Amino acid sequence: MKRSCKLLLVFLVVLVVAVPAAASLNLETLLPFTGRGPDTYFMVYQVSVSDYPVEGQEYLEYRVYSRGDTIAYLTTIQLHDGTAHEYQFTMDLSGVSGPEPEPELFFTNYELRVVGLEEIAGRQAAVVDLVHKLTNQKVVTYAVDLETSMTLRRVEYDSLGQVVRWERVVEIDFQPDFSELDFTKNVLSLEGKYKEVSKEEVLQLLPWLQLDEAALPPGFAFIGYALVEGGVEFLEENVLRSRYPGSPVDKVLLWFSDGLKHGQIRAVFVGQQLSGFSYPVTVLDTSPADYSAIQVEGAGTVLSLSTDFMTAEEQLDLLKTLVP
After folding, report:
1. How confident is the model at residue 180 (pLDDT cuts 50, 70, 90)?
2. pLDDT above 80 for 256
3. Nearest 5°: phi and psi at 105?
4. Which residues contact residue 42 at a Cβ distance below 8 angstroms, ignoring those fewer than 6 apart?
5. Edge-to-edge strand list for the sheet holding 281-283
6. According to the model, what pLDDT value does residue 48 have?
7. Sequence spans of domains, the chain
8. Nearest 5 degrees, angle CA 98-CA 65-CA 68?
9. Beta strands 187-189 and 59-67: pairing type?
């Protein structure tokens, strides 16, 4: 429920509020990338399991303890045979960041419609529909806490308007007692050393990369670039290490977005990169099915991409447009 990147507050210039009772809302809290809320809280939330079904169970329930950049998750899975299994893991989000899209990019593609108010877990929330301008289709419905801006309910829809995923808070406390909780248990650290770089700096590292020719999905644009300096190792490195043993491996991340959906292209490479060449491309066998990768022969580079809004074929087409 809490995003791992640092969130930016933005201001809405014009928004027609459909519900008079909601006219006093602080509308800057209603964008989907502003609903972080307080750093310290305890909540119980439920998530639909359509993507990862558990037999005999409609949803998974998590008990979430947030203490700034450290979040502990407790979940109980009730199996069909009546047995229950409880798991705890702790996420260390310190040092994790990524670029945020400019508000203009979001408003180019989406419209916010405040459609009502509702009470969730004893708190008043504004109900906001997010509508794609090109298709006029409802993409997401949010219920946003009026006081803290936290998202208390989120529903995602497919292109036919059918619900494909939902999350809902059923209990929340902003003054929790953490004395009985061990935040050092099963810690998963996502910390990585990312150095933000400019487009020009990326092209100095990979001068053959055709960023301006990239076949991004309609409405999408590159929003940031970073050099990975340590703390994270990618699977693509194994491909290059087997072919270029002993050579240092560098990694660049290319983020693109339409203001709501985000994608990340990984460029993993070795050696001095040259421009002015035409490079043959080899499509790599990958798993899972939504992960796509190509090896740029002669450039010592692997480009890869995995999203939940593009097909594998669309991802491969995008990667190939980056190569001359």
Report:
1. confident
2. yes
3. -65, -40
4. 63, 64, 65, 66, 171, 172, 173, 176
5. 193-197, 221-230, 249-257, 262-270, 301-306, 291-296, 281-283
6. 82
7. 20-189, 193-321
8. 45
9. unpaired
- Computed over every residue of the chain, the mean pLDDT equals 77
Instruction: Name the CATH architecture for the domain at 20-189.
Output: Clam (2.50)
Report pLDDT for 99.
80
Residue type, 162: Q
Q: What is the 3-state secondary structure of 76-137?
A: EEECCCCCEEEEEEEEECCCCCCCCCCHHHHHHHEEEEEEEEEEECCEEEEEEEEEECCCCE
Query: Residue holding tokens 């020009």?
Result: 200
Counted residue by residue, the chain has a size of 324
Q: With 50 as the cut, is the pLDDT of residue 160 above it?
A: yes
Which tokens hold the place of 204?
A: 């100095």
Q: In this structure, which long-range contacts are made by residues 62-66, counting pairs with CB atoms below 8 Å and at least 24 apart in sequence? A: 64/1, 64/2, 65/176, 65/178, 65/181, 65/183, 66/2, 66/39, 66/40, 66/41, 66/42
Q: Which structure tokens are listed for 324?
A: 């001359």
Nearest Cα to Cα of residue 60 among 44, 49, 50, 71: 49
- What are 29-62's pLDDT values in tens digits? 444 444 456 778 888 888 886 654 455 556 777 7
Specify the pTM.
Answer: 0.76
Q: Do 302 and 236 form a contact (C-beta atoms < 8 A)? A: yes
* pLDDT value, residue 93: 62
